[in-house]
Specification:
The complex is a heterodimer.
Chain A (H helix, E strand, L loop, with lengths): L2 E6 L2 E6 L5 H18 L3 E5 L8 H16 L3 E5 L3 H9 L8 E3 L2 H13 L7
Parallel strand pairs in A: 2-3, 3-4, 4-5
Antiparallel strand pairs in A: 1-2
Chain B lengths: L1 H8 L4 H19 L1 H14 L8 H21 L3 H14 L6 H22 L4 H44 L4 E4 L2 E7 L4 H18 L3 E8 L5 H16 L3 E5 L3 H9 L8 E3 L2 H12 L4 H7 L1
Parallel strand pairs in B: 2-3, 3-4, 4-5
Antiparallel strand pairs in B: 1-2
Helix pairs in contact in B: 1-2, 2-4, 2-7, 3-4, 3-6, 4-5, 5-7, 6-7, 8-9
Classes of the chains: A alpha/beta, B alpha/beta.
Chain lengths: 124, 297
């Protein structure tokens, strides 16, 4: 399994540890969709720190996951993009809009906290 | 004298032996007239206003040392010591702004002064004068070339070193406070530098866990499409790392250029100056400035 999903409070954390195939993306989207409903999660954090490359396929997959989760009532934050990966992405003109990205899981938590509570908290 | 000549020349050719012997005579002449010749040389250097950045005492002592090395090089035929001395001297005088023109001029003056003294000494015997000059000229030219080349090489080395240090210094990423970085860009932004800068910034974002980065381009004189694209890439990549970027210090000229070039910078948050950028950054990070606090209370 190349994705580990764990729960932390109201949020789900999906850690992508190796490159994703087409069917794995579909499976991940389905599983996240299920668990968001079961756990009444309000936020999804997708950690892509294990990826050496984010190509257009991965970017599109992440975007489709985010849009799906939004329909299920949860916001998605992508974390852990490596500097080299970020440089490559802008050079290939890839972006993750409308997904937000954050430096690490801590950051993602405070970002999601802000959104779900509607009031900006400092730090977390 | 005979034996010395053979060892010095180390050659079986009769012409070479004569040459070597003449060279020894020549060196003897230069040694015995050391003081007067140096003084004449220094006088001519002064009258041509070469080495104007140095005091006359300095000029005198440096030139005396050059003279001794010069005569040694004539005697031994080896320019290595002279080369090392010339390098060392160049290292000392280059930072003071001595130019290549001056160094070449000085070396040529010495050659002229010495040649003139030979004319005076051997003016009665034309044939001997010819022979002496035959021995002197190639050696003197070689020395002149060596000194000039040493100077130029030293200068190039200094320039190379400076270029390297500019490269290293050119992209400092500074942390102003917890999770807030400043990247002041100064000078010309070419592709290579822009890439290096982006990489350094992204790594700094990760190590400092930066949330906001203020990129200040007050020090960038002009901007074109390529540079604007680099800037755009830097901002995009930082956002992917989870940091927001504020660009400050766009001069009126740069702003107009960007509009004329139809560059879409709507994705980039820009603020007039660095101070405004920092205030904006603190707002983004959720700090409240002291002024706002007291106004509230």
């Amino acid at each position: 399994m190349s994705v580990l999903i764990s729960r932390q409070g109201d949020y789900l954390i999906a850690s992508v540890v190796s490159d994703l195939s087409d069917s794995q993306v579909v499976a991940l989207r389905a599983e996240l969709g299920e668990r968001v409903g079961d756990l009444r999660a309000t936020g999804i954090i997708v950690d892509v720190g294990g990826l050496d490359v984010i190509d257009s396929f991965v970017a599109r997959s992440l975007r489709s996951i985010a849009l799906t989760m939004r329909l299920r009532g949860a916001e998605t934050v992508v974390v852990g993009i490596q500097p080299e990966v970020a440089i490559a992405m802008v050079q290939f003109d890839l972006d993750l809009d409308p997904i937000h990205s954050a430096l690490d899981i801590d950051e993602a938590f405070s970002l999601l906290d802000q959104w779900t509570e509607g009031t900006p908290e400092d730090g977390r | 004298m005979e034996t010395q000549a053979t060892t010095a020349a180390q050659s079986s050719g009769a012409g070479d032996e004569v040459n070597a012997q003449l060279l020894i005579e020549l060196v003897g002449h230069l040694r015995s007239n050391r003081r007067s010749l140096t003084e004449e040389w220094v006088g001519r250097v002064n009258s041509e206003q070469l080495l104007s950045v140095m005091t006359s005492e300095e000029i005198f002592s440096e030139l005396t040392a050059v003279y001794d090395n010069y005569v040694d090089a004539l005697e031994t035929g080896s320019v290595e010591t002279l080369q090392a001395y010339a390098r060392d001297l160049s290292e000392r005088i280059i930072p003071r702004g001595v130019e290549t023109r001056e160094v070449v001029g000085i070396v040529l003056l010495l050659r002229d002064v010495l040649a003139r003294s030979l004319f005076v000494k051997y003016e009665r015997d034309g044939q001997l004068l010819n022979q002496i000059l035959d021995a002197y000229e190639p050696a003197a030219n070689r020395i002149a070339v060596t000194v000039s080349v040493s100077f130029v090489e030293e200068r190039e080395r200094v320039i190379r070193e400076q270029q390297e240090s500019i490269q290293e210094l050119s992209t400092p990423v500074l942390q102003v406070r917890e999770r807030l970085l400043i990247l002041p860009i100064i000078g010309v932004l070419d592709s290579q530098r822009a890439r290096q800068l982006t990489e350094q910034l992204l790594h700094a974002i990760r190590t400092n866990r930066a949330k906001v980065v203020v990129v200040d381009i007050t020090g960038v004189a002009t901007i074109d499409l390529t540079v604007a694209n680099h800037l755009f890439h830097t901002v995009e990549a930082s956002r992917l790392m989870g940091a927001s970027v504020i660009v400050t210090g766009l001069s009126s000229k740069i702003a107009q250029t960007l509009v004329d070039l139809d560059v879409d910078l709507s994705m980039i948050r820009t603020v007039g100056d660095l101070q405004g950028g920092l205030e904006e950054a603190e707002r983004v990070m959720g700090y409240r400035s002291a002024g706002a606090d007291s106004a509230d209370g």
